[in-house]
């Protein structure tokens, strides 16, 4: 009796070991196949072949090892088949499409540029009131990939001051086109698009107003084309050079999330399809894109942003809402990855004498040195510290933001004093 019990227990153990071995083999085959192809059906076929071959070979080996009698083998095999079916069902979430976004249709003020870079870019324009000033204003949104809804109230106020004002959806976000090869989302491509836009406007010089990543993009444009920038305003700019910050480059936004927000963000970011896509991106970005298309990835990205946006504000501020415009997941992931590989632009920027305003909010989640790096690098820069504002100063303190930006661009005295210390206020 004990021997029979041990044999039956051994049969169950055999099935479990075979299942584990089969899952490991399937995952290995799935990701190894991605080195050779981006075709998802081929990846799935490789995984299935590896799964079933490993499982049944392990089972037959186990049957012989535990010496199950012929009369016991059908039951063991039936249990094995049931286990396979259960395992296959568990893999369904990996291939079940997620909800797709229903973005706002282009409004009457949205137009498109077909640039020589190959990018089709959505933009909005408000002409200057009266005779336009020599340099148009171009707003650069954050993210990468978090496009705004057209021109902001600040942009409309600047148009009333005589500036031609433009706001555009960067490649891979908003209403602009997505690339079929996501490896094309690079900092250099965004800089090239911006310069192509400048030429399309017929402007020798432009005024750049960048928020977060938009400030980082403005910094890279200044390094590449300083002769074409009249002034720049960098509001809560992103990391100028990742090599200088390492682990601090992302700031402390994650630490500011409440337990509920963190749980929500983690559940979204670790969904089976998202996890598989992120792993595939390390092997073959095209395979990741084929598995998780732009529509699904962008919608998931929006939900992650919605779960964490309030953590970028000062405590007690009214909850912020995301723009209705569609975010871009792959341009976010690939552009940041590319930025981490770039050489240091600061030696070049130390020679650029373009008037630049750097704005920092009291509650900005980014490390202080990320912001101050712009002030100490750009020779003709002014740093302004904005109390009671988070990462999005224009959202938390719109009146102060507008007053500072207008004064700077019009050459008036700033309503807030320049901040000159190398350390943040205490």
From TrEMBL:
Pfam families membership: Abhydrolase_1
GO cellular component: membrane
Membrane-spanning segments: 12-36, 42-68, 75-95
UniProt keyword terms in alphabetical order: Hydrolase, Membrane, Transmembrane, Transmembrane helix
UniProt GO molecular function: aminopeptidase activity
InterPro entries assigned to the protein according to its UniProt record, in alphabetical order: AB_hydrolase_1 (IPR000073), AB_hydrolase_fold (IPR029058), AB_hydrolase_sf (IPR050266), Peptidase_S33 (IPR002410)
Highest taxon, organism lineage: Bacteria
Gene3D superfamilies linked to this entry: alpha/beta hydrolase
Record carries keyword Hydrolase: yes
GO-annotated biological processes: proteolysis
Location of the AB hydrolase-1 domain: 136-397
PANTHER family in UniProt: HYDROLASE ALPHA_BETA HYDROLASE FOLD FAMILY (PTHR43798:SF27), MONOACYLGLYCEROL LIPASE (PTHR43798)
Family according to the record: Belongs to the peptidase S33 family.
Protein name: Alpha/beta fold hydrolase
